[in-house]
Input
Amino acid sequence: METEDKDKIYRFLFDKANIRGEIASLSDVWQTMQSNHDYPKIIRQYLGEMVAASVLLSATLKFEGSLTIQASGDGAITLMVIECRNDFGVRGVAKYQQPLLDEILNEQPDESELKVLLGDGTLIITIEQSKTKERYQGIVALEGNSMSDFLEGYLERSEQLETRIFLASDENTVGGLLLQQLPGQIEDDDSWERVTHLASTIKSEELLGLGAKEILHRLYHEEDVRVFDPEPIYFKCSCTRDKVTNMLRSISHDEASAIIKEQGNISVDCEFCGETYQFDEIDIAGIYSKNSQPSDLSTKH
Ligand SMILES: [Zn+2]
Output
């Protein structure tokens, strides 16, 4: 891939067809996201696809805020969560049960679709506005097999807009392509079918290996496409000592004191970025003193 397209998102428009699109590619950012974890290959693949998806969906945020995609189930993958801000600061984590994962992969190596690994579960999309803390949350059952299936179904129901999403992921790179039919008059009736059919010919290797302009040329050199300047994607963890402090309040003073007695201090690792926050006896006394108020109760870590 051309280095200028690394960790970038491009938006484009088919003006006559009223179709909008995006191509996102993450490499350094994706590697940073995995650096504190030793994810098995299959987990990396599905988490990576979700990272690409969350960046693509965040491009529609029209205010300062974030979009979070959370998939959880009773299967080998218990949780995957990715948060992406309106300016494409992204972070995420996956949790899984290794024995169950090994069992599934041994028994049915060819059927290790995301739906199988998640089991019965839900996909939750949360959009939060930074200033007002206003939240919109949509919850859907996991219908289909893949992350793009889940999200296409969700978008069709929630926004009534036909959307196609193509995702690819390996340990070095993740890539995604999104197409969405916008409301309004269309001069060319077959355009949606033609544009999405061409998109469906894209191979994972191409999404991962080609630059955005090469992909657009390869698919749409016969169409009228307007491509906008790309925007950078970066790794952003929003953890702070304040948020961890608020989280610590969920355990009792007695429990906290017991841990201090046993271990000398309380150490909390951020599961997104690996940052360690340490609290000693004096910190804990301060947190539980009567005058101490949570600094920001509305923020969930
Ligand atoms: Zn963090």
About this structure: The mean pLDDT is 91. Residues 237, 239, 270, 272-273, 275 surround zinc ion (CB under 6 Å). The two ends are 35 Å apart (CA to CA). Residues 41-58 form the longest helix (18 residues).
